[in-house]
Amino acid sequence: MLNSRQRAQLRAMANEYETILQIGKAGVLDTTVKQVADALEARELIKLKLLETCPTTVKETAEQLAQATNSDVVQVIGRKFILYKESKNNKTIKLVK
Q1: pLDDT band at residue 96, thresholds of 50, 70 and 90?
Q2: Helix 58-69 vs helix 30-43: angle between axes, to the nearest 10 degrees?
Q3: For the residues 39-64, what does the mean pLDDT come to?
Q4: How would you list the strands of the sheet with 45-50, edge to edge?
Q5: Which among 3, 2, 11, 5 is positioned nearest to 76, based on CA atoms?
Q6: Per-residue pLDDT tens for 19-48?
Q7: Cα 88 to Cα 26: distance, rounded to the nearest angstrom
Q8: Could you give the C-alpha distances from 53 to 18, 46, 60, in angstroms and in order?
């Protein structure tokens, strides 16, 4: 669980990040969960975008993916959201306490 200072740190870092995945009309599939899990292991912090054709809301999709990948939702803004999960092997982000 992230505290407010850690969320702020991750939000600031994510400003520079590009969106790496888009979720469309099919919604969250098993392949999407696998892609997100792999991306989180490699990068720890990722930004995703929900297309207008997606059947669920941005918040619902973010929570669904966070639960499926054991990650934390850092921020939901507009149609984009940011997920964070500490990597087992590739720890590159040092969080404030």
Answers
A1: confident
A2: 70
A3: 94
A4: 19-23, 45-50, 80-84, 72-77
A5: 11
A6: 999 999 998 999 999 999 999 999 999 999
A7: 30
A8: 21, 21, 14
Burial of 63 (0-12, 13-18, 19+ CB in 10 A): middle
Helix (H, G, I), strand (E, B) or coil at 15: coil
Torsion region of 16: left, alpha or beta (phi above 0 gives left; psi -120 to 50 gives alpha): alpha
CATH number at 4-84: 3.30.110.60
**pTM higher than 0.85:** yes
